[in-house]
Amino acid sequence: MAMMVHPETALGLAIVVAFLSESAHHSAELNRMERGGRQLASELRQANEHVENLRRALTHRHMELNNAIEELHRRDAVGSPAARELLKRQEEAMTAANNALETRQEQNDVVFNSMERLLNMQVEQTANMQRAMSDLLQHLISQPRGHFTMSDSVVVQEQRNQDTGLSETFNLINEWLDAEAVSSP
Predict the structure, then answer these.
(1) How far apart are CA 92 and CA 106, in angstroms?
(2) Rounded Cα gap, residues 62 and 58, in angstroms
(3) In whole angstroms, what is the distance from residue 131 CA to residue 125 CA?
């Protein structure tokens, strides 16, 4: 049994289905990116815990070295050059280890901040795209020009009359898009 549907109803249904399809796709993409962001944040937390463990070990080692340095100073009261050289090398090693830990922590912070900014930008772009598509579809629905169909995200108008050209419709859409672009931040 063939059902006859009014063209405006068919257009409305097609637009709603296209909008829901795009919304589902963007929602899935957003969820995938949020999962990735959470995974990266988790990995970064683990890396920070590792750095913290290294820092604790370094602090413990630092205390041991300080005790050894104090012992060397006590023994060095006589002026042993070999003990002074050992002391100097140990202090240089401690400084290098501290610098390496600080550099690693800074790199982790930069990566985490970059991933957070990237995720926020993607969320904002997805929301803007959905808002613009919704506005465009609302605008197209409000135009009683003819029969519209959605095909591969391209709007096509079938001409019912030779006098109304396709260029007029595209000019109206372009004017509307220009107005939206000017009004958006």
Answers:
(1) 21
(2) 6
(3) 10
